[in-house]
Amino acid sequence: MTWEKFWSIIDRVRAQADMQDEASVNQFLYTELIKLPQDELLGFDCVWQSYRNKANFPKMVAAACIINDGSSDDRFTDFRNWLIMQGYDAYRQALIDPDNLAVLNIPFRDTEWMGCGNVAWYAYAGQKLRAYFEKEGITAEPEALNIIAQKADGGMRDALSVFDQVVSFSGGHITYKSVIENLNVLDYEYYFRLVDAFLQNNVPQALMIFKEIRDNGFEAQFFIGGLSRHFRDLLVSKDPVTLPLLEVSESVAKRYGEQAEKCTLPFLYRAMELSNRCDLDYRISNNKQFLVELTLIQICQITNPVTSAPENPPLQKITPAPNAGQTVSPTTQTPNTTTSQQTAGTTSGVTQTAEPQAAYRAATIRPTTFKRDIPAAPTQTRKAAPPTRISIHQKPAESVAEENTSTVQTVLDTPFTAEALTTAWLEYAKTIPTEVVLVNTMQSCRPQLVDPKNFVVSVDSQIQVDHINEHFHELMSFLQNALKNNQFSMQLRINQPGEKEIIFSPKDVLMKMIEKNPDIKNLYDTFDLEIA
C-alpha cells in the first residue's frame, strides 16, 4: 500500500461521506476497504498507524486539548484518527505546525473519532466472514445482515452473537423474515403500508394496521418511534445529497425512493412533527393507545383536512363601521329580490348589478371585549345575520340560526382582583396536563394586573408566546367564565436579556440583602456567620 493510494482512498471517502458524521465516514470507508485484497487491506492499516504515530508530539497534544477542552491517551488517539480523515493537505499543515489548524476552514464540532482506526479490521473480518459463509454453506440476504447490524448497534461481538443465534434457528439460510421473527424486530413493511394509507386518507386501514402491530406484541411507543424514523428515511430519500444517510440495503432503499416520490415535503415535515410530539407526550398520557390512534388520524388528514364548515355558509357583506353616536339601520330586501339574485347566480354564474360588487371575507375571531349600543325602542326591521364562524364545536346551521334570533351576547363586568386572576390562570393550566411547555410557562409566568381592564404576561422566549397564542381563545374563554368578566384583554411581552433576575442559591440571597442593607455584612463578619 503506497501513500498515494492511501490518500486517494481517503479523498474518495471524503467526497461521498458527510464529514460531520463519523458513522457516515465509517460506512463509506468500510465500503472502500472491503474491495481491497487482504494484503493491501493490511497495508492500509499499517500506513494508518504510521501516520497516526507521526502526529504524536507535545504541541499536537496541546492543540487537541484546546480544541476538545481537555484530552487523554484514548481521546488523543481518536483526535489523530479524525485528523487523518481531514485529508493529506490538512494533515501535512498540522504536522508542520498544529497552529495551522486554526487557519484551515475545518468545523470543530466533533473531533474525536474512535471507529475510523478500526474500520480496516472490520473490513478484514467481513472478508473472513464471507469466506466462512462459502465454506460452511451459509447464505444470507443483505436485508437480513442489515437488521443484525442494527440490532447489534455497532458492536462486533454483539453482531457475531446475534448472527450465531439466527444461524442456529434458520438452518444456515438467513432470510429477512427469519431474522425479524427470531429477534422480534418490527417489520418495515408495516410502515410502508401505513404511509400508503396516510396518502389515501384511509383512517380505518391505518387504525387496523396499528391493531395488527399491537396484536403481534409490539409496544405502542416502540411503534411510534419506528414511524418517526420511517418518515425521516423518506425525507432523506427525496434528495440525492442526503441519500448516503439512508442506512438500508439497496433493495429497501429503492422502495424508500419510490414511496418518497409520492410524498410531498410539507406532508413529511408535518408527519414528523406529529409523530415526534406523540413520542414526547406518550409517557405522560393516561390513555396511550388513544394518543397513538389520534396521531394516526391526524396524519391521515394532512393531505385532506376535514373541516366542520356548513355546506353553504352565508357570505356577509362588509359595510363601513358607523361613527360614534350613529346607529345603523339594516337594509331590508324583499324575498322576491333575494330569490331572483340567487337564481341568477346559480344558473349563469354571473351576477350583474348596477353598483360595484360587494367584497366578502372569511369570518375572523373578534377580541374578547363585547360592547353593544342598545336602541331606545325596538324596530321592526330584521337584524343582519352575524358572520359565520367555523369551529370544531360548530352546531348545526338550523340551531345556530335559532340562537342568533333568540339570544343576545351579554356583557359581563364583574370586578376581580389580581389574586382571583392568578387562581383562574393556574386552574386553566391544570386542564391541559399534556401541554407540558404551556403548563410550565403558565406556572412560571404569572399574569400582572395593570388596570381593571388589562393584564400583562411577561415570558422569556418567542416559543412561549407561540404556545400561549395556540390556546389563546380557549384560555380567554376559561378566564371569562371563571371571573365572570368579558371586558378585559391580555398582552404578551418578552423579557429582555438581564431583565429577569433569578436567585438560585442562599449566597445569592445574602448578596441581595447586603445590597439593600450594608449593615448585614457587618453582622455577618462580626459573628463569623456561615451560610447553611
Order of strands, main sheet, comes to 3-4-5
**What is the overall silhouette?**
flat
End-to-end separation: 67 Å
Low-confidence blocks of residues: 324-395
> Describe the biggest sheet?
3 strands, mixed
Number of strands: 5
Percent range of helical residues: 55-70%
Radius of gyration: 34 Å
Q: Percent of residues in beta strands?
A: under 5%
Contiguous helical run count? 24
Overall pLDDT score? 76
Q: What is the element string, with H for helices and E for strands?
A: HHHHHHHEHHEHHHHHHHHHHHEEHHEHH
- Category from helices, strands and their pairing: mainly alpha
Write the layout of secondary structure elements.
Blueprint: H1 3-16, H2 22-33, H3 38-54, H4 58-68, H5 73-84, H6 88-96, H7 119-136, E1 139-140, H8 142-152, H9 156-170, E2 173-174, H10 176-183, H11 188-199, H12 203-215, H13 220-237, H14 250-262, H15 265-281, H16 288-300, H17 335-347, H18 397-406, H19 418-430, H20 436-444, E3 448-451, E4 454-459, H21 462-470, H22 472-483, E5 489-494, H23 506-516, H24 519-526
Parallel strand pairs: 1-2, 4-5
Antiparallel strand pairs: 3-4
Helix pairs in contact: 1-2, 2-7, 3-7, 8-9, 8-10, 9-10, 11-12, 12-16, 13-14, 13-15, 15-16, 19-20, 19-22
